Amino acid sequence: MSDLPSRYSRQILFAEIGTAGQKRLLGSRVVIVGCGALGTVQAEALTRAGVGRLRLIDRDFIEESNLQRQTLFTEEDVRESLPKAVAATRRLQAINSSVAVEARVKDLNYRNAESLLEGADCILDGTDNFEARFLLNDVSQKQRIPWIYGAAVGSEGLTMTIVPGRTPCLRCVFESPPPPGTTPTCDTAGVLAPAVNLVASLQVAEALKILTGRLERVNHSLVSLDVWRNTWRRLEIESGRASGDCPACHLGRYDFLEGERESLAAVLCGRDSVQISQAPGKQLDFPQLGRRLEPLGSVSYNRFLLRFRLKEIEIAVFPDGRSIVKGTRDPQEARSLYSRYIGN
Amino acid sequence: MIYLDNAATSFPKPEAVYRELQDYLRRDGANPGRGGHQWAVRVEKTMDDTRNLLARFFGLDDHRRVIFTLNGTDSLNMAIKGVVQPGDHVVTSLLEHNSVSRPLRQLESDGRIRLTQLPFSQEGFVDPEDFRRALTSRTRLVVLLHASNVLGTLQPVAEVGRICRRHEALFLVDAAQTAGIVPIDMQAMGIDLLAIPGHKALFGPPGTGVLLVGHRVEPLPWREGGTGFDSEAPLQPRSLPHLLEGGTPNTLGVAGLRAGLRFVTGEGLDRIRGHERRLLARLTESLRDNPRICLYGSLDTHRRVGSLAFNQEGYTASEVGMILDNSFEIAVRPGLHCAPYLHRELGTAPEGAVRISPGYFNTEDDIDRCLSALEQL
Question: Quick check: A319 and B327 CB within 8 A?
Fold first, then answer.
């Protein structure tokens, strides 16, 4: 242990990591996609654990409502309204200056995903939308990079580890993302920090196994937990697609990386508005979506559109999920607002 | 899906255009003029033949002055940048599309020209008197659209043409919304440069455009390159059309455009315009009685072509567009229609308006379904 810094001594003492494991960790490259609640917890733990290189990808800027759970951010960051990836990097460098941390203020999409994730030994999911996760899954399968799915909303959390060639993948479990506007989000249903922290910690544990070469220890189940209703379930997914017809991991079809399923964001003529076009899905249930959004702002709808107003932002949602986000000219911001309030 | 966005590009195309595109690419895949083998000669012949048809159709007596371009924007840029010189004065209107106002505003902002943008009436027409007053001895070029791409209103092109002739100014007309619908005669109307997209009412494929260059104009090319002859000459040949057409042309597009033009001449402009006017009349008569709809520009169908702009109370233009698409499968065009000055003058900026633009292949039933959708909003 002599040639390794003493800051890692407790981790090295853990027999299954040891000096060899720590050395592998110090040479590893990790990408965290999404630097919100999950991402900040993951990033801090992995920086303290001593990964070699860490890339943080996030499109958003820090807001006050983030401080309740996004552990790397401070009130000063809110005042400066810094990009999350930049503020996190600054903080992480103060925590462990020997880790090479790199911030990428970017919206992950099918055009940049392969280059942003290339060369990673492990990818951690800190995103807030399914579109990005299915994209991560495609890159993971194509480039043979393990990734760790994680999600938390309300008091519930979900996580699953995907090691190409060894475990089922996300598309073995879910054939396609849920239609837009049908799932709760942290911005509509709220979220408890302990649920997030638990999921992120489980993801980090899985990452440590992968990065130190202990693949036999990887958890093969989908873990579902609820810190408020006191449930903790492990769902075996081995048999999820026994027939061997998973489009991604069996047939090698990377539909999300081809871009055909990606939503388009186009700046419209007129007063700061961006149109989000989803691949056509099923018809939205406006009463249900309205009920979810009502506590947050003003909602009105008829059979043609639902309007949701929150301060200077307005989102007009149409029956097939396409939307016009008003109050911004930035497609990246519009996509982010869409993920947060409508959900995709 | 009901397509009511023909002011952007026509859809569908006549069967003959689809057939020609398919056949041509299989049959005549060679480069015109290059090599002199029989294929090359046949392709050159297609180009020539199309130039001839276009020259005749638009009242130009020399088919060599018909230049193939990429689209209307390319034709306009080629014309504007090919004739203006530093220090020139250029006159245009506030009705123009960005394909005219942007190149002109850029030249103005670079300090190369002085620009006058003339207003239009509540009804959507420019006044030839304004042009008479605006022209000076420094005015090299006057640019005016034949019909507004938003309001559909037809402009007094012949009157402005006469004024330009008297002042030695060159007259460039943007016929994006009228070529193939309204008769245009360059000689009779005093037009020096006529810019036309091939893919609108002439029914050619996208990627086609035409610039017709009158005898008073000696344009400069913005690109030089291969012409398939005179290769030892170090400079671009000065003869038209080669002066302006360096590089392999879009022969497939030209063949498709020829098929479209033949369709138009076969049907006849009277019939085409008559059909569009009937559809437009049906539309305006119903919408003018709807108290929740605000129509823009003159409603006199004799003085306009098939574009109708409106706004619906309670919705933004882009919402109306999205609802028509999403709930009724009707394609229209909301927004500023690349005509920001026009919308500013109308008071509809920055949201713009909804534009319905029927074409020759739309039916009365299409219009009725669109009207019924708007009533339900």
Answer: yes
Query: How far apart, in Å, are the Cα atoms of A274 and each of A61, A89, A315, A325, A340?
Result: 18, 30, 10, 5, 15
Token pair of B177 as six digits: 């919304």
Give the C-alpha separation, A210 to A223, whole Å: 17
Domains and CATH numbers, chain B: 2-11+268-376 (3.90.1150.10), 15-266 (3.40.640.10)
Nearest Cα to Cα of residue A314 among A323, A295, B348: A323
3-state helix, strand, coil in chain A (%, to 5): 35, 20, 40
Shortest CA distance from B344: residue in chain A? A270
Assigned token pair, A271 = 């007063």
Q: What is the pLDDT of residues B1-43, one digit of tens each?
A: 999 999 999 999 999 999 999 999 988 877 776 667 887 888 8
Structure tokens of A177?
């993302």
Chain B partners within 8 Å of A269 (Cβ): 318, 334-337, 350-352
Domain boundaries, chain A: 6-241, 264-342
User: pLDDT tens digit string along A18-55?
Assistant: 999 999 999 999 999 999 999 999 999 999 999 999 99
Tell me if A305 and B319 make a contact (CB, 8 A cut-off): yes
Interface probe for B, chosen from A264, A267, A269, A305 (most Cβ of B below 10 Å), is A269
Calculate how close chain A gets to B110, using CA atoms only, in Å.
26
Q: pTM of the predicted model, to two decimals?
A: 0.87
Interval A131-158: pLDDT, tens? 999 999 999 999 999 999 999 999 999 9
Q: Kindly report, residue by residue over B80-134, the tens digit of the pLDDT.
A: 999 999 999 999 999 999 999 999 999 999 999 999 999 999 999 999 999 999 9
The CATH code of domain A264-342 reads 3.30.310.10
Specify burial of residue A164 (Cβ count, 10 A radius: 0-12, 13-18, 19+).
middle
Between β-strands B308-312 and B293-295, what pairing exists: parallel, antiparallel or unpaired? antiparallel
Separation CA B281–CA B306 (nearest Å): 9
Tokens of B190: 């005093």
Q: What CA–CA distances, in Å, run from B281 to A235, B10, B276, B291, B302? A: 65, 20, 8, 18, 10
Q: Name the one residue in this structure whose structure tokens are 């090319």.
A: B221
Integer Cα distance of A49 and A18 in angstroms: 13
Return the CATH class of domain A6-241.
alpha beta
Query: What one-letter code names the amino acid at B306?
Result: G
Out of B318, B326, B349, the one facing A268 most closely (by C-beta) is B318
CA distance B73 to chain A (A): 19
* Pairwise CB contact (< 8 Å): A268 & B335: yes
Partners of residue A304 in chain B, C-beta under 8 Å? 323, 326-327, 377
Out of B326, B351, B352, whose CB is closest to A319?
Answer: B326
The sign of the torsion formed by the CA atoms of B58, B60, B63, B68 equals negative
DSSP structural state of residue A244: S
Provide the ipTM. 0.84
The Cα of B192 is separated from the nearest Cα of chain A by a number of Å equal to: 33
Q: Give B377's contacts in chain A (Cβ within 8 Å).
A: 304
Beta strand spans in B231-331 (E): 293-295, 308-312, 330-331
